[in-house]
Design a protein that fits this description.
The protein is α/β, with parallel strands linked by helices. About 35% of the residues lie in helices and about 15% in strands. The chain has a seven-stranded parallel β-sheet, sandwiched between helices. A two-stranded parallel sheet has the order 7-10. Strands 8-13 form a two-stranded parallel ribbon. Helix 1 packs across helix 6 and helix 5 runs parallel beside helix 7. Bound molecules: nicotinamide-adenine-dinucleotide and uridine-5'-diphosphate.
């Protein structure tokens, strides 16, 4: 009998790639998503697969599923800063009530549980790179607090279910990930810069662009998540690409790769925007034998192609892309 994986947030950017990977690996997949920030078009190609089921449901409400489940992967949550600023209460609820429901389901089904946590649990870090042992520097009452604190609570309740109910839980702390199926309007740096560059519109760098991030291509991330799901690890593990760069460098790279005529403009830095971010991936290398393989330019070119093919509808037809 095929093993069954339930993926909350499975119609989102990362979730849809995870649904595909688990189907490829021979699992049945139940995708539960309320489409608040995800899209049915991300999983439409999977709907005819007899091993794939989509259930439209808000996981902050009780999750009722008949039959066995072997893995619960909890990925439901707005993830882009503009999404969680637009949906602050839904974000807090899905990190708290949604995680509680997903853990309850895992407990009832005796399933393994994996939580999608985030580098945002480190806040605006005072330590760089960030190892899992770092407790973070988070403003609980700032605008980003709704996301950071919901994920910190999600980690705490996951560890409590592991300790009290002996559930085999895993926590992945995901660092900035990009790739196909990010929404053009999602507001994160890579989709913004690519769609601005493809339209020859100004590239909006926030602040002076000296803040850093480390960008991981989605296939590397889901490979790490799959290895973590199958591992014996119960403590949090960072998954990300340690190739750290400034946002200004990223903007210039995207202009070069798209051959765009865009100019860079500098807009105000959002409140509590972390100044640096880079994963320490020693633990993932040691425990999961994982390391990222896709270099930034390769991943960016694939993402640019995706945006050029899928997001053309809203684009100025006179805008040209010369690569
Ligand atoms: P996304 O917005 O594309 O996907 C999130 C999905 O969750 C969407 O399909 C959305 O509709 C669904 N969802 C949200 N609330 C829900 C609810 N209450 N009930 C059911 N479905 C709900 O974002 P993403 O980038 O794919 O992020 C997926 C997960 O990974 C999130 O938990 C996020 O916190 C985490 N993460 C992502 C990144 C990244 O760089 N992409 C970094 C750190 C953590
Ligand atoms: N950013 C930017 N211009 C944009 C969007 C984002 O300069 O149009 C910056 C943002 O201020 C942050 C970095 O890019 O410093 C990464 O932002 P993103 O929203 O991608 O994710 P975050 O790491 O903040 O969660």
């Amino acid at each position: 009998m095929k093993k069954i994986t339930l993926i909350t947030g499975g119609a989102g950017f990362i979730g849809s790639h995870l649904c595909e990977l688990f189907l490829e690996k021979g699992y049945k997949v139940i995708c539960v998503d309320n489409l608040i920030t995800g899209k049915l078009s991300n999983i439409r190609h999977l709907l005819k697969n007899k091993n794939f089921i989509f259930i439209k449901h808000n996981v902050s409400e009780h999750i009722n599923i008949k039959g066995p489940i072997h893995y619960v992967l909890h990925f439901a949550s707005p993830a882009s800063p503009i999404d969680y600023l637009k949906y602050p209460i839904q974000t807090l609820k899905v990190g708290s009530l949604g995680t509680h429901n997903a853990l309850g389901l895992a407990k009832a089904k005796k399933a393994k549980f994996l939580l999608a946590s985030t580098s945002e649990v480190y806040g605006d870090p005072l330590v760089n790179p960030q190892p899992e042992s770092y407790w973070g520097n988070v403003n609980p009452i700032g605008p980003r607090g709704v996301y950071d604190e919901s994920k910190r609570f999600a980690e705490a309740i996951t560890m409590a279910y592991h300790r009290v109910h002996k559930i085999d839980t895993k926590i992945v702390r995901i660092f900035n990930t990009y790739g196909e199926r990010m929404r053009e309007e999602d507001g994160r740096a890579i989709p913004n810069f690519i769609s601005q560059a493809l339209n020859n519109n100004p590239i909006t760098v926030y602040g002076n662009g000296s803040q850093t991030r480390s960008f991981c291509y989605v296939s590397d991330l889901i490979d790490g998540i799959y290895k973590l799901a199958l591992s014996k690890a119960n403590d949090p593990i960072n998954i990300g690409n340690p190739n750290e760069m400034t946002l200004l460098e990223l903007a210039k790279t995207i202009i070069r790769l798209t051959g765009s005529k865009s100019k860079i403009v500098f807009n105000p830095l959002p409140i509590d925007d972390p100044k640096v971010r880079r994963p320490d991936i020693a633990k993932a290398k040691k425990i999961l034998k994982w390391r990222p393989k896709v270099v930034l330019e390769t991943g960016l070119l694939r993402t640019i192609d995706y945006f050029a093919r899928h997001c053309g509808e809203n684009r100025d037809p006179k805008a040209s892309m010369s690569r």
